[in-house]
Structures
1.
Amino acid sequence: MIRRAILIHGGGPTAVLNASLAGLALELRRAGHWSLLGARFGFAGLLAEDFLDLDAPSETLLEQIALAPGSALGSSRHALDEAGYEQAVRILLQHGITTAFLNGGNGTMRAARHLAETAGGRLQVIGIPKTIDNDIPGTDHTPGYGSVARFFAHAVRDAGEDNRSLPSPVMVVETLGRDTGWVTAATALARHSPEDAPHLIYLPEQKVSLEAICNDVERVFRRLGRCVIAVCEGQRDENGHPFGADVQ
Amino acid sequence: MIRRAILIHGGGPTAVLNASLAGLALELRRAGHWSLLGARFGFAGLLAEDFLDLDAPSETLLEQIALAPGSALGSSRHALDEAGYEQAVRILLQHGITTAFLNGGNGTMRAARHLAETAGGRLQVIGIPKTIDNDIPGTDHTPGYGSVARFFAHAVRDAGEDNRSLPSPVMVVETLGRDTGWVTAATALARHSPEDAPHLIYLPEQKVSLEAICNDVERVFRRLGRCVIAVCEGQRDENGHPFGADVQ
């Protein structure tokens, strides 16, 4: 008996959406007894019953899609309301689909949970994470984290060359990562020597006061005559307030 | 008789400052009868008489510097006042320097002219352009243009993949370039087919009305269902006003 599944993307299109699409399609073929559809442009395509047959592409084409930028299937940031979730479940069941793979970030993972709750046991819903923040419990690293880690390692390395070349001795680089330190920690990856940027890294898992940062900067500045700081967007001060919010 | 020269950088540090430094030092060695100093951190280093001996580095080291990011000599955005220009001329002549090479963008080229006028014939001042805008008359292409052309070709190609993957059909990418179209024109360089982004390019050398742009977008949208526009920061509307200024 064939099990019918569907893949639905959410969020910004990136090569990792395509890689996950290819990985899912190839693995289901290997498992056998599966048939896979794809919703064009995410939930919007599901509600419009605009499906692609993902059993059709050759393995070669899927392997090429895995390396392509953008999204071969199409994505969207369309959020469903309550009636939308009920309609989505109805359409899925009408098409004999019993498994929905939702591929996206935090919003899409919440949507996966909501879809499963709405279906009440009639549907298997599986989230495939796509987040640069690497903040999904139970995963080692999420698709998306690798490329953003590389980006920030390079960006801070390059900012370090500016810092070395200009008489503007202190630079602060704010990283993405929401309230987890994975992206900020990655800024250390392109350092070759202890003199290379970043000289200071603050992780949002640990609160820090402005005074402590100033003392750290003073120490680095006395040693090197310059200082590059990497700090996460979600950093909190010693009172647990968003860092620097009172300065804005 | 040896001629003494000095190299002074201005503006943001980039690999092209280093490439120009190496090119100048190597060419003066080949010409013979030259001695070259470098001012640390631009005009600030000149006024502080903080010089590096650019005859000292080996050819191998200079060739390595040519490929390095940042600025080996140091740069600054320090602007001189009238007294500063007079002091600069006095210091240069005291050190027996009769040629000053100023390497930088528009501001540094203006400073070169002002320095020459202040010296009144006692000093040869030569500008070495460093500008992404490629807007120096008498040059074919300026150091800096190549890398920014590559950057924007890639950025618009990538934006085109987003445009293809999301149900947000019209995207506008604003490029650098001041009031010249070189950078904007470069966005066409990564296109492989007529369907690739950018679909429309507007160059600031030609004024354009909002109505004309909307008609162009409509035409592209009817054909492709999407449209990516590349437009220069210095674009003007049909009345010669900064484009879109009335919307802000």
2.
Amino acid sequence: MVNAGAMSGSGNLMDFLDEPFPDVGTYEDFHTIDWLREKSRDTDRHRKITSKSKESIWEFIKSLLDAWSGWVVMLLIGLLAGTLAGVIDLAVDWMTDLKEGVCLSAFWYSHEQCCWTSNETTFEDRDKCPLWQKWSELLVNQSEGASAYILNYLMYILWALLFAFLAVSLVRVFAPYACGSGIPEIKTILSGFIIRGYLGKWTLLIKTVTLVLVVSSGLSLGKEGPLVHVACCCGNFFSSLFSKYSKNEGKRREVLSAAAAAGVSVAFGAPIGGVLFSLEEVSYYFPLKTLWRSFFAALVAAFTLRSINPFGNSRLVLFYVEYHTPWYMAELFPFILLGVFGGLWGTLFIRCNIAWCRRRKTTRLGKYPVLEVIVVTAITAIIAYPNPYTRQSTSELISELFNDCGALESSQLCDYINDPNMTRPVDDIPDRPAGVGVYTAMWQLALALIFKIVVTIFTFGMKIPSGLFIPSMAVGAIAGRMVGIGVEQLAYHHHDWIIFRNWCRPGADCVTPGLYAMVGAAACLGGVTRMTVSLVVIMFELTGGLEYIVPLMAAAVTSKWVADAFGKEGIYEAHIHLNGYPFLDVKDEFTHRTLATDVMRPRRGEPPLSVLTQDSMTVEDVETLIKETDYNGFPVVVSRDSERLIGFAQRRELILAIKNARQRQEGIVSNSIMYFTEEPPELPANSPHPLKLRRILNLSPFTVTDHTPMETVVDIFRKLGLRQCLVTRSGRLLGIITKKDVLRHMAQMANQDPESIMFN
Amino acid sequence: MVNAGAMSGSGNLMDFLDEPFPDVGTYEDFHTIDWLREKSRDTDRHRKITSKSKESIWEFIKSLLDAWSGWVVMLLIGLLAGTLAGVIDLAVDWMTDLKEGVCLSAFWYSHEQCCWTSNETTFEDRDKCPLWQKWSELLVNQSEGASAYILNYLMYILWALLFAFLAVSLVRVFAPYACGSGIPEIKTILSGFIIRGYLGKWTLLIKTVTLVLVVSSGLSLGKEGPLVHVACCCGNFFSSLFSKYSKNEGKRREVLSAAAAAGVSVAFGAPIGGVLFSLEEVSYYFPLKTLWRSFFAALVAAFTLRSINPFGNSRLVLFYVEYHTPWYMAELFPFILLGVFGGLWGTLFIRCNIAWCRRRKTTRLGKYPVLEVIVVTAITAIIAYPNPYTRQSTSELISELFNDCGALESSQLCDYINDPNMTRPVDDIPDRPAGVGVYTAMWQLALALIFKIVVTIFTFGMKIPSGLFIPSMAVGAIAGRMVGIGVEQLAYHHHDWIIFRNWCRPGADCVTPGLYAMVGAAACLGGVTRMTVSLVVIMFELTGGLEYIVPLMAAAVTSKWVADAFGKEGIYEAHIHLNGYPFLDVKDEFTHRTLATDVMRPRRGEPPLSVLTQDSMTVEDVETLIKETDYNGFPVVVSRDSERLIGFAQRRELILAIKNARQRQEGIVSNSIMYFTEEPPELPANSPHPLKLRRILNLSPFTVTDHTPMETVVDIFRKLGLRQCLVTRSGRLLGIITKKDVLRHMAQMANQDPESIMFN
């Protein structure tokens, strides 16, 4: 019952020659892949292996290896991503401290490592160990005083400038794709776009190195987003080792989805959150098999990172938090306020950052990327140094803000006035009045907040690797901690107020300012990225308990609603639009009442559709058509009169087939007839040898009728991953809709410039 | 540019009459819905609300309410599902203890609650409090001795029989759909099938009550699967309150997916695991919006359950576990062995259970469901009572097996010989030689294992609510604990062996038998259900730490591989096939080289396809066609000669339209011409008034060419949720492929009986 002779689905190109000519089935740079066709090709490959595996033991083993290669790739990705993340963490640690001083015993030790080896490791003296010397101590032998301060200040700025200059130069010279967070581009690539070199080996190497440099330089950026890019580069590298993945753009994207999960997993130490991030934010086609493998890759990466143990505390997570008191219903109000703040911050950041990036693209500003980086770094360093909360690295800052004030905490933020009558228990310290340190800290935090807000807008989008998870979280954490301290002091001084009376007696520990910082961080991150489930799960993995999930969720939901009210796009989608990538978002709902006939080409008044006929055009006709148009493919019809559709031929394959036939097949000349039918057409006796091209004809092109609502067409494009779709009415070919047409139509309907969609 | 006059997409039925006649757009029982059409209808509804909302403030508020209704439904589902789960837990607790005795102070207290209120609440005497009386004490005033034992034995059996009889009678009389776990049917319903009453209010009520009865009766079944059904009934109930969900079968299924997540969330106290379970196992169409809402519903449900606090320990999770020692690499070998065991158990269970269920369906056995339940209950009770590990409830058993032996543990399983020279630390007890109790326990556990394996096969599928999560986990936990104790004793007595030497010194706590039980439970559950990510995440939420995720994952992966080697179907898919539901599994890969032309109807030699012409058939012709065939719809073509496709008309809507026209429109008689075009056809002067039916015509039917590979067709059916698809060649209509045809073809290709697919 299987009609094998007629078997020539979209993936089968081999009913004529045994070996397809080279390059058939590949795509050009900046083009969109055809998911159905990739899937079909993979099934063909799989069928071949399965049928071969019955022939001999060797083939059977090969088929087993093929089946296992997916897991092997995941293992390798996990190992490499985890290792790179560990190395980056260690290097950043060392280089950040290098800005302040150097370790005498071994210059490659960071401040903390240097003082570990020192003998005086009592808790109080940990920060002052003789082996660690500030630059002023080393150079002019002064540790205090104005001149020492100025010297250290200068050294700080110099190192920052050096790191930033090195980073931007490396990116410019070796790997221009290494800049930015990479997530917008990865989203586009995963949706089926080709950007050659974006996930290449050079990008991997340069991004890893420059990431260390820029993070150490103290710029307001994080390593989390770029780590996703680095992990995807690893994924791309390993998938190129296995023909199953290297030769199939669809399968390769399954590996990349898993790699993205591994990237987030190592960035936060949150494997489940990483998988959900990949599912929710990054991936386009995410079958359940990939879910399982992503989970595996994310776990391997997390455990590799843990065995490297860069933080020296065998914790998996970036910010480990442990709170001792529950939260109370009345606290939901400040939590929701923080959510509103997060939403507003998200909106402000996206608008300002996009406006600034557009200006960079369109004005002369974009011509001096090195200068821009140097200037921003200099300003950042100059303003950051005097304030202790901006001088320290942003992850340390967040960590400090998240922390609950224990009894042994020496930080300025924990400078509360203790009741002398009270013995100090280790946990469960009651709310106390704030001391001088806390008030100073509040001022410094307020300044740090303004500084971070402004400088992050200008930093994200420069020609260096830059993530915005950490800066966003920092903004939220600062705001949250300030609100938290405010509520705490209010509750301490006014515990007879009706809102506090029920849950905040004197002597009780009722408000945890660290929790507010965490809630604020989640809200701000949510406002910028519009993540939902993955955000809450990542935060859940940080705290490790369901206890605090309700505050986090309340803030995340509020922040998303507030931000969505001002604009549906998250920062990544906004950057995708800014760059004009052909990305068909799964989350956008198309609700307009247009029909396929309104979108298809040719429009009314335009010249008719360029088609091929099945058996009446010469090679020259086709070559002229190819030269005169730049369409990616041509529908093939029975004849120009009947316009009944037979199939679809890709431009690239037509060109290759004709070139190949002219070189290899005898008797093919310019006026040879090209035919797509099974049998050659009846030709006059003296006509040249005709050229059969059935093998490059896609006999199952996708068609819709002209009355199909566009919402259905959009759905089909999204779910099946089409490149183009033909439009018919009562069996006659009317026109064609490409992915670009769909995107332009959607932009037009949303009152945006349709010409902003640049690629096909 | 919007061609509004011609706007008649699949969802728009209103281009002629303002109000569609009743019942248009609904589906018959045991039919499949058309997802694209449901989606399109929802978009129409949404558009209408959005455009109306600009008219007045009242309409704007209504549109806000509509937008919020999704969250309200989720909140209500979470609240009700959590409450029901809490009530079920409390009732089961009480009724399970009722089989053994009664509380004198208040008969509605369970054993534990009874002894809480008692004054003698020291730890050792907790089990013996005077207020709790065994039946023998109460009835004949004897607590020890053979006659007391026999009396208690009899009472145990009597109560079990009473509970089981009540349950099976209630199910038979009031709600036949309340039987089984419900998950296979819910999977089918979520994939787009209609089973009226399956999620009705009666089913909800009866399933809740009978679930308590059967779990208390001591049968080898669990409440976890049925809780998913109960939660889905809640979801169905609340979605019927909002027209957004009640009138759209597609939207309703989004709510049901979230409800399933809430069900698992309360079953295990694992909200994230619940969402992933819904995503991985149950749901079919799971957009990201639903993911977020499911998470919300799952959280609300979990917190509602926690505030009810049925276990009295304010723990959210069903089995809370805390281990004190890490695992070692060498232990991976027994863990993988447990995985193999789990896979073998899964295969054995599925094969035997399906064979037994098939026998029940086909022989006289199925005619006596009450007797069957009584007999199985009697046998279960008689065998279970003498063995303490089968007498206690299965969840208590699992809980005990998971537990690490602490210093204060009085259980038989923790009867180790202590070193008298050693002081007893609270945690971190070194490995010790097993005492007599442990050896007795091993024998009893072995017997319990055999008993559970056999009896579960016969229990699952009877006409009572029955889940198999708990029995499967029990089988695995018993096997795991036995292996764990074995490894522990081996390591204790032979710590000089090379495999133990590196990690198991004398006096160290190296093996945790409880962890083996947990790994075994995961492996067995994985073997039966073939869950992957959700299984690991549920287990992760039980232990609450990433520490033990690698052993769990190793066992889950092994178990899935071993079980898959013997057959790809999990127990739920196997039951779906057994019942012949039209379920198109997303996980099955279709790899055969067939084409659409091989599957479409009519086959070669069959009578031609029944079609309607656009303007030449009379009402009578159509009525005859409808009477003579039972197709769900008919393609409409220009004329029988050209066979050019215009659209598709649903049978149900044709019948309704003709009935309606005959009643309401004047001049419609049997030989009126029916036309589907915009303009009426030119008719002879004396012909009766024609009937315009364009509004029921779907102008955008889905078409594929006859050369389309079936793998693509299957993909399209899956991803777009089609009911049928028309097959064309060069614009001519050749045939039709329905979902049933696809399923039959897939069954045939897998060498199964294609007639087993029963519904359309």
